[in-house]
Automatic annotation (TrEMBL):
It is found in: Cell membrane. This is histidine kinase. InterPro entries: Bact_2-comp_sensor_kinase, dCache_1, HAMP_dom, HATPase_C_sf, HATPase_dom, His_kinase_dom, Sig_transdc_His_kin-like_C, Sig_transdc_His_kin_internal. Gene3D superfamilies: 6.10.340.10, Histidine kinase-like ATPase, C-terminal domain, PAS domain.
C-alpha cells in the first residue's frame, strides 16, 4: 500500500476544497444566468410578438371600418338588386360606388398605400372592382367562381380574413377581408359580398420590425392552418406539423425541430383576426450568451485554480519543509545520534515544536546516561546474587527428587495386586487394576484430544472402583453409535460429569428406576455428547447461577464458597477445558428441570478425517 505523505494530503485537501468551491460557484452562476437569459429572451420575444399583434389588429380594425362603410352604403345595397342585363343601372351605381371608394380611401393615407383592391359582387353575377382609382373588368366566370367561394367562407354579417385574391397574380401577396351584404331591406337574405384586398407587403413592414437575430424569423398562421406571412411560408402545406403545433399551443411557447435544428417558437393568437403570430429563434442562438458565460466561467475558474494550487503548494511547502527536517532529526535520534535542530527565526507553532524536540533530546540523553549507569550497577548486583539463587535451586531440586512420583504409585498398586492374587481376592484385583488404569490415564497421557472410546474406558474403570466402594451395582446406558467412537474429544471430561451426577443427582442413593444415559451425534459440522439422568435435577436459582458462571469462561477455584457442595467445580473446568482446546464457540451447556433430571451437552467440532485414495 502506497504511503500518503503529509504534503500530498495537504495538497489533495486544498485541491478538493478549491475545485468544489469553483464548481459549486460556477455551476450555480451558470445555471442562474442561463435561466435568467432564457427568461429574458423569451420575454423579449413575447413582447415583440405582442407588439406586432397589437399593430396588426389596429390596421385590420381600420379596414373593418371601411368594410362596414361599404356594407352599409345604400348604393352598394342597391347595386345588389339591379338586373343582370341592365347596363344603365350598372353604370350609375358603379360610378356612385367609385366616388364613394375614392372619398373613403384617399382620406386615410395608410389605407391608400396598403389597399390592393375593393370589389362588390352580387348574386346576379355583376361585380364592381376598384383598384386605387381604377375600375377593373374581370371574366364573369372567374368572378362568379370567386363569389361562390366567398359566399361559402365569409361569415354571416361578420368579418372573415381569407388567404386568397380575386386576381391569380396577387395570390399569396394579399389577404382578403370579406363580409356578406344584405339587400336594401335588412330582413332580406344575403345578396352579395363586399371584399377588401390588403397588400401584405405594406402590412409586412410592421412585422419586419420584429428583430429576431440572423437566424430568427416571423410568420403568421390563420385559424385554418394556412400560412399568411411570409410568402415563402405560404408554399408549405396547410395544417402541416408546424401549423398544427402552433394551433395546438395557443399562447404557449414550445420547442420544435425545424429544418434540422432545434428552435423555440413563441405564439400569440389575435383575438380580433384569429391569426396566430409566431416568432422563432434557434435554441443554439438563444443559448449563445449562456455559452459565453460558461466559457468565461471555465477560463476564469481554470486560471483561479492554477493560482490557488500554486499558493497551496507554497503554503504546504512552508509547513512540510520544517516537519521533514524534524523527521530526519528524529531518525538520527533513533540511531543514537543526538541531533539538534536550529530554531533561530521560528516563532510560530512549528518553532515551538522544534524547541520541544531539542528539549526532549537533551533530557533523553541525560536519562539514558543515568539508565546505563543504573543498568551496570544492577548487573553487578545480579551477578552477586546469582550464586546464592543457584544454591537455592539446587536445594529445591533435591527436595523434589525426594517426593513420591507416579512410578512409585504404579509400583505400589502392582504390589497390592500381587498380594490380592496370592490371597485369591478377585475384588481387590479388579479394583486395583481399575485404579491403576485411571491413574495412568490421568497422569501419563499428555494428549489433549483423545477418542470417545478412551473416555468411555476411563468411565468404565471409574464405575468399577465406585461399585466396590459403595457395594451397589449400577450400569450406565451407552447409546453412542459405533461410528462415533473414534471421534475426538477432550481428555478427562466425561468421567467428571458422571462423578458429578452420582454426587448430586442421586443424593439419597441410586434406586432401581434411576438411569444415566450417554449418547452422541454429529450435525451441522458439530459433534455433541449428551449425558442425561433422571435424578433430582437442579433448582432454577442454582441453574441460573451455573449458566452465568459458564458464560464467564474461566476455570473454577476449589476455594470458592459453596462450589464443592453444588457441583460447580467439575462443570466449570470441563466447560473451560473444551474451550481451551477447541475455542470459545464450544463448551458445556446445562438443561435441567427440578425433580425430573438433568441433561449435560458437550459441544465440540466434528472430526474431519482424510479420504482414502482408492
Amino acid at each position: 500500500m502506497k504511503r500518503k505523505t503529509l504534503s500530498g494530503q495537504i495538497y489533495t485537501y486544498f485541491l478538493i476544497v478549491i475545485v468544489l468551491s469553483l464548481l459549486s460557484v460556477g455551476a450555480v452562476s451558470y445555471w442562474q444566468s442561463s435561466r435568467a437569459l432564457d427568461d429574458q429572451v423569451k420575454q423579449y420575444m413575447e413582447q415583440m410578438v405582442d407588439s406586432a399583434n397589437y399593430q396588426t389588429d389596429s390596421y385590420l380594425q381600420a379596414y373593418e371600418l371601411l368594410s362596414n362603410a361599404f356594407s352599409s352604403n345604400s348604393d352598394v345595397r342597391a347595386f345588389m338588386e339591379i338586373k343582370p342585363d341592365d347596363a344603365y343601372e350598372y353604370y350609375v351605381y358603379s360610378d356612385k360606388i367609385k366616388k364613394f371608394s375614392e372619398s373613403s380611401v384617399q382620406s386615410v393615407v395608410t389605407l391608400y398605400k396598403q389597399l390592393n383592391m375593393i370589389y362588390v359582387v352580387g348574386q346576379h353575377g355583376r361585380s364592381f372592382i376598384y383598384e386605387n382609382q381604377n375600375l377593373l373588368n374581370f371574366d364573369p366566370v372567374l368572378v362568379q367562381e370567386q363569389f361562390d367561394n366567398l359566399m361559402k367562407i365569409a361569415g354571416d354579417g361578420k368579418i372573415a380574413l381569407l388567404n386568397m385574391s380575386i386576381r391569380p397574380i396577387d395570390q399569396g401577396t394579399v389577404v382578403t377581408m370579406a363580409r356578406k351584404v344584405r339587400g336594401p331591406s335588412y330582413g332580406d337574405e344575403n345578396r352579395g359580398v363586399v371584399a377588401i384586398e390588403i397588400k401584405l407587403a405594406e402590412l409586412a413592414k410592421t412585422w419586419d420590425r420584429v428583430s429576431l437575430g440572423k437566424e430568427g424569423f416571423f410568420f403568421i398562421v390563420d385559424d385554418t392552418g394556412n400560412y399568411i406571412y411570409p410568402p415563402s411560408m405560404g408554399l408549405r402545406k396547410p395544417q402541416d406539423e408546424l401549423a398544427s403545433l402552433v394551433l395546438a399551443s395557443g399562447n404557449q411557447t414550445f420547442l420544435h425541430k425545424y429544418n434540422g435544428e432545434e428552435r423555440m417558437f413563441v405564439s400569440r393568437k389575435s383575438g380580433y383576426s384569429d391569426w396566430n403570430l409566431v416568432a422563432s429563434m434557434p435554441v443554439e442562438e438563444l443559448r449563445r450568451p449562456a455559452d459565453t458565460i460558461r466559457t468565461t466561467t471555465i477560463i476564469v475558474g481554470l486560471v483561479t485554480l492554477a493560482i490557488a494550487l500554486w499558493l497551496a503548494y507554497r503554503f504546504g511547502r512552508s509547513i512540510i519543509a520544517p516537519i521533514r527536517g524534524l523527521k530526519d532529526s528524529m531518525r538520527e535520534t533513533e540511531k543514537g545520534n543526538w541531533q539538534y535542530i536550529d530554531e533561530i527565526g521560528r516563532t510560530d507553532e512549528i518553532g515551538g515544536l522544534i524547541h520541544s524536540y531539542n528539549l526532549m533530546v537533551t533530557r533523553l540523553s541525560d536519562m539514558i546516561k543515568r539508565v546505563y549507569e543504573a543498568e551496570l550497577e544492577q548487573q553487578k548486583n545480579q551477578l552477586e546474587l546469582g550464586e546464592t539463587k543457584l544454591e537455592r535451586q539446587r536445594a529445591e531440586f533435591q527436595s523434589l527428587q525426594l517426593q513420591i512420583n507416579p512410578h512409585f504409585l504404579y509400583n505400589t498398586l502392582e504390589t497390592i495386586n500381587c498380594y490380592a492374587i496370592v490371597q485369591d481376592s478377585s475384588e481387590i484385583t479388579e479394583m486395583v487394576e481399575a485404579m491403576a488404569f485411571m491413574l495412568r490415564y490421568s497422569v501419563q497421557t499428555n494428549l489433549e484430544e483423545i477418542t470417545v472410546a478412551n473416555e468411555l474406558n476411563h468411565v468404565r474403570n471409574y464405575m468399577i472402583v465406585l461399585q466396590h466402594r459403595t457395594g451397589k451395582e449400577f450400569e450406565i446406558d451407552v447409546a453412542i453409535p459405533p461410528g462415533l467412537l473414534l471421534e475426538k474429544m477432550v481428555r478427562l471430561t466425561l468421567q467428571p460429569l458422571i462423578e458429578n451426577i452420582f454426587q448430586h443427582a442421586f443424593p439419597d442413593g441410586v434406586e432401581p428406576h434411576h438411569f444415566i444415559r450417554i449418547d452422541a451425534r454429529k450435525e451441522g459440522g458439530l459433534f455433541q455428547v449428551f449425558i442425561e439422568d433422571n435424578g433430582t435435577g437442579i433448582q432454577p436459582e442454582r441453574l441460573a447461577e451455573l449458566r452465568t458462571k459458564l458464560e464467564e469462561n474461566r476455570l473454577a477455584e476449589p476455594e470458592e464458597t459453596g462450589e464443592s457442595q453444588g457441583g460447580g467445580i467439575g462443570l466449570m473446568n470441563v466447560h473451560r477445558r473444551i474451550q481451551m482446546v477447541f475455542g470459545e464457540a464450544y463448551g458445556l451447556s446445562i438443561d435441567s428441570e427440578w425433580g425430573r433430571g438433568t441433561r449435560l451437552t458437550m459441544t465440540m467440532p466434528e472430526t474431519v478425517r482424510p479420504r482414502l485414495r482408492g
